[in-house]
Amino acid sequence: MAKDKIIKGKTANLYSLSSSLFIIYLSSLIFTYFIYGFISYQFRVFDFITENAPLQHPLLFVLLFVFIFVGLCVFLFFDSSRITILILHFFSALTFIFLFIISNSNGWVEYENTLYTVSGIFLLSAYCAWLLGKVIIKKINILFQKYSILIFIIFCIFYFVYFSNLATERHNRFYSQLYDMGWEHQVLYNLSTTGAPYSTVESKDGIINWADHTSFIYYLLVPFYKLFPSVEFMLIFQILAVILASFLIFLLADIVLKNKFYAAVISLAFLLHPSVQGFLLEDFHPTTLALPLFFLLILFAEKKNFIGLITCIFLLSAVREEFVFFSFFVGLYLLLTRKINFGNFLYIIVISYAMAVIALVIMNFSGKVISDYNRFYFLTNKFWGVVSVVFVNPLFIFRQIFTAERLDFLLLTGVSLLFLFFLHRPGWVLILPGFLFTIFSKHVPHFLVGYHYSVIFICAIFTGIIYFLNETNWNKDKIIVLISVLMFFVNYFYGNISSKSIQLVNVNPELAITKPDFIYKNWIGYYKNLRGEKDPEIKEYIKTIPPSLKVAADPFIAPHVSGRRYIYHIKNYDWADVVIDRKESSGTYPNFKLIKETKLWKVYKKM
After folding, report:
1. Would strands 601-606 and 567-569 be described as parallel, antiparallel, or unpaired?
2. What is the DSSP secondary-structure string of 252-294?
3. What is the value of pTM for the model shown?
4. Which tens digit of pLDDT belongs to each residue from 352-374?
5. Pairing status of strand 578-582 against strand 551-553
6. Measured CA angle at 599 (ends 594, 600), to 5 deg
C-alpha cells in the first residue's frame, strides 16, 4: 500500500482531468478526420496483399487506432500507478505525427487551405510541446545552456551546405530567371568592370540601375564579387548573409534574455522560417543583406554603441530605397524603447532624410524607369491619394487587408512565433512599415511567403519576440518549447528542408514564360525536388562567346550569360549578335542562322 502511494506520487504529474480531456479531444479529432478520409476514399477496403501504407486505406487505420486506444484504456482501468497515461500521451503524439506527416503522401491538398493546415500544425505542436515539457524540457535546457554554441554552429554548417547546394542546383537546372537574377548579376558585373551599374535588359544601350532601385550597397559587394565573379557567388553570399543574421539574433537574444537555450531556439526559428528560406531560393536580391545589418544595428543599440548604430543606419539605408523609409521607424523604435536619447534620434532622422534626398535625386537623374507607386493602392496619387483614401473611404483599407491571401501571409509568417511580437507594443512601430510594404500592396508577390519583399516584416517580428519575452511574466519555458516545436512543423509543411515539392516546382518553364502570373498563384512553399534538366554543353559553349558580342536570351538561360556588358530579353533579339532560345521553342529569327544545338538549347548568330 505504501509502495502504491509512492508510485502514485511519482506519476501524479502525468495524470489529471485536464490532460485526460485533452487526450479525448485529440483522439476524437483524429478519429473524425479518418472517418472523413474513409468516406472521401469511397469506402475502399484494405487489400492485405499490397504493401501500401495504412493511411491510404483509412478503414484499417481507424480500426488499428480504436483497437490500440481501447486496449490502453482497459489497461488503465487496472493501472493504479497511472503509468498508462504516459503511454497514452506518447501514443496520441505519435498518431498525430503520423497523421500530419504521412497524410496525403500522393498529394499536397493542405496547401489549398492554409487555415486548416495551420490549425492542424498548431494542435500537433501544442500537444507535442506539452508532452515535451512534462518529460525532458529541463534536460534540454541544461544541454543547450552547456552546448548551445556548438549545436548552433553545427546546424549553421548543415544549413549552409544544404542551401548552397540547392540554390546552385536550382540555377544549374535553369530555374533562375532574367528577372531578377540576370538583371542583378549584370548590374554587379558592369559595376565591377566599368564602374557604372548598368543594365541592358530593357534598353538597347543600357540604363543605370539606380533608376530602378538604389542599391548602393553593391559598392561594398563589388570587391568580393571581383574575387569570384559568378552567379554562384551571389547565391552563396546571400546564404552567408542569412546565417550571419541568425548569429546576430543569437547574440542579441542571449544578451537580452540571458538564456542560451532561448537564444538558440529563436535563432533556429529564424533559419527555419518559411520566408527566410524563400529568400534563398528565389534568385538574388540585395534586400536580403538588410537582415544582418538590421540585427547588428539593434545589437549596437543594446550595447550603447552609437557610432556602430549610425554606421548600420547608413548601410541599411543604402540597401534599397524602401529601407530609407524603414530607418526612420527604426530610430523611432529605439527612442521609444529608450535605447537612444532624443539627440541621437535626430541624428538618425538627418541621415535618413539625407539618404532619401540622395536616392530621389539619383533615381530621377538615372531616368526613373519604374515607379513603385503603382504597386500600392494608397500611393497611386502620391500624398493626396493617401489622404483622400483615408478620409473618404477608410473601409477600403480594411477591405484590402482582410483577404484570404493576406491572411495566409500573416498566418505563415507569424504562427511559428505565436504572434507574440504583436504584444511588444513598441514593436508596432517596426511592424507598421512591414505592413505598408506587404499587406497594403496590390503587387501579389509582396504578400506571398518566400519573396524578398517581406524582409522588413521579418526584421520586425523577430525583434518583437525577443523583447516581448524579456518583458513578460509568462512561463518562458513553455513559450520557448512551443516555438521550438512549431518551427519544425511549420518548416515541414511550408519550409524547404523537409517539405514536399509544391506547385511552383511543377510549373513547366514554357507555362512560366507564356503566363508569368502562374508563378505567383498560390505560392506558399518552395523548391525541393528540382525537375529541370542540366545541360553542361551549353554552359561550356557560353564561355566561348566573346564578351564584346551582344546576347539576347530566353529568360531561363539569361542568368547564365548575364556576366557581360550587353544582354537582352529574347523579345528584343534584333538588338543582339547572338540569340539563345529553348530547343522546343517555335520562335523564328530573321537574319540569324543556327550555329549550335545542345540538349536543351539552340544558339543563333546574326548573318
Report:
1. unpaired
2. HHHHHH--HHHHHHHHHHHHT-HHHHHHTTS---GGGGHHHHH
3. 0.81
4. 889 888 888 888 787 755 444 44
5. parallel
6. 75
